[in-house]
Design brief:
The chain contains 16 helices and eight strands. The chain is mainly alpha-helical and 423 residues long. The chain has three domains: 105 residues, no CATH class; 106 residues, Cytochrome Bc1 Complex, Chain D, domain 2 (Orthogonal Bundle), CATH 1.10.760; 110 residues, Cytochrome c-like domain (Cytochrome Bc1 Complex, Chain D, domain 2, Orthogonal Bundle). A hairpin with a 2-residue loop joins strand 3 and strand 4. The radius of gyration is 27 Å and the shape is globular.
């Protein structure tokens, strides 16, 4: 009897030790799985931050990533982007997920209301899951101490409480809802375009209060550039682009029609070139699914027009070496000027900016040697540039309003371009 009790106690102790070992192993396995899950969430959040192009606005040229300090020129004054690193004093390291959500999707940070230069009206479409994953990634950004004065707007726009009224008028907090009549691919593209990629923030005309008009994706002027028409209009928009043309452009920064310039170059280099093929194809499918927008093309100026005659002569001298005399350019390198929607834009701001200051072509993994356009502001007078652009905009299959010397002078001053070296 005694021997049986001893055997039972020994067996019980062995089972208890085995159970403890099993429990420890289960605990370690659970911890490893949790760590793996968090790692996957951080990686998803990193991808979402790329899709949202957070780096472009929250990083100054040559500065620390996400440390803020970039001045954004708005019609109401300068807004400087904030530090979103994990620094607890000058960044957002002390924030909670709820505070991050409030800022990103509702436009209110712990320090007060945000201005829609931070595209929270678009980010309101982000799902709860994506918002949480984005926060997991943002929390991993190394802290950078950089105190930023974000609000440099003049009175009365510097009163943040005014945004309460703006939000009531223009902020749609409705979460993204898939359209059951559209494919899963088109809905994925809509989610990216309307939300994370916030294309409408730049490409939709604003009213006098800075709210979106009904001219969705139909183009507008912004910071000395013209964000072009993204509708399916064949004259000024994407009507003649195929889905493959869109994917190629977003991946490489160039295609058979054009090459990116200005802020769009940054968007492609920092954001869209890093998206998956599936997401790029979804974005393209969404844009091509939009209803066609009919807009009558104007009649081109006659070749006998005085500006056209001067512009044709100046074009051969100044431009034909790269764009060739016909304006055909070099495919996927130097944009064609023939029947080009960007050339036909109602506003010539982008063309003026490129001619006056030059531009560097996008440098992407798919297009590592982007061609550059030299500046002509130092070389050509306002009337010469006006004549050249008027000629380009009314020949080679194009038709658009003439550019006047006063337009060039205005742009030259606004963007700080050089004056001609001789007068």
């Amino acid at each position: 009897m005694i021997m049986a009790k001893n055997l039972f106690r020994t067996a019980l102790r062995t089972c208890m030790r085995g159970g403890m070992v099993f429990s420890a192993m289960a605990f370690l396995a659970h911890g490893a799985k949790a760590q793996d899950d968090r790692g996957a969430r951080i990686e998803r959040g990193r991808y979402l931050a790329i899709a949202g192009d957070c780096l472009a606005c929250h990083t100054t040229p040559g500065g620390k990533p996400f440390a803020g300090g970039l001045d954004l020129k708005t019609p109401f004054g300068i807004i400087t982007t904030s530090n979103i690193t994990s620094d607890r004093e000058t960044g957002i390291g002390s924030w909670t997920l709820q505070q991050f959500d409030s800022a990103v999707r509702h436009g209110k940070s712990p320090k007060g209301y945000l201005y829609p230069a931070m595209p929270y009206p678009a980010y309101a479409k982000i799902t709860d899951t994506d918002l949480a994953d984005l926060w997991e990634y943002i929390r991993t950004i190394p802290p950078v101490r950089n105190a930023v004065v974000t609000n440099k707007l003049p009175f009365p726009y510097n009163i943040r409480a005014l945004m309460i009224g703006w939000n009531l008028l223009f902020l749609d907090r409705t979460p993204f809802a898939p359209d059951p009549s559209k494919s899963a691919q088109v809905n994925r593209g809509a989610y990216l375009v309307e939300g994370l990629e916030h294309c409408g923030t730049c490409h939709t005309t604003k009213n006098f209060l800075g709210g979106d008009t009904r001219a969705t994706y139909q183009g507008t002027s912004l910071q000395g550039w013209y964000a072009p028409d993204l509708s399916n209009n064949p004259h000024t928009g994407l009507g003649r682009w195929s889905a493959d043309d869109l994917v190629t452009y977003l991946r490489s920064g160039t295609n058979r029609f054009t090459a990116a310039s200005g802020p769009m170059t940054e968007t492609i280099e920092n954001s869209t070139q890093h998206l998956s093929d599936v997401d790029l194809q979804a974005i393209a499918a969404y844009f091509k699914s939009l209803p066609p927008r009919a807009a009558a093309a104007p009649a081109p100026l006659p070749a006998t027009n005085a500006q056209m005659v001067t512009g044709a002569r100046e074009f051969i001298v100044q431009c034909s070496a790269c764009h060739v005399s016909s304006g055909a350019g070099i495919r996927n390198m130097i944009p064609t000027l023939q029947d080009n929607p960007a050339v036909n834009a109602p506003d010539p701001d982008s063309l003026l900016n490129i001619v006056l200051r030059g531009t560097n072509g996008p440098m992407t993994a798919a297009n590592p040697t982007g061609a550059a356009m030299p500046a002509f502001g130092w070389k050509l007078h306002d009337d010469q540039i006006a004549a050249i652009l008027t000629y380009i905009r009314n020949s080679m299959g194009n038709a658009a309003p003439a550019v006047q010397p006063a337009d060039v002078a205005r742009a030259r001053k606004a963007i700080g371009a050089e004056q001609p070296v001789w007068h």
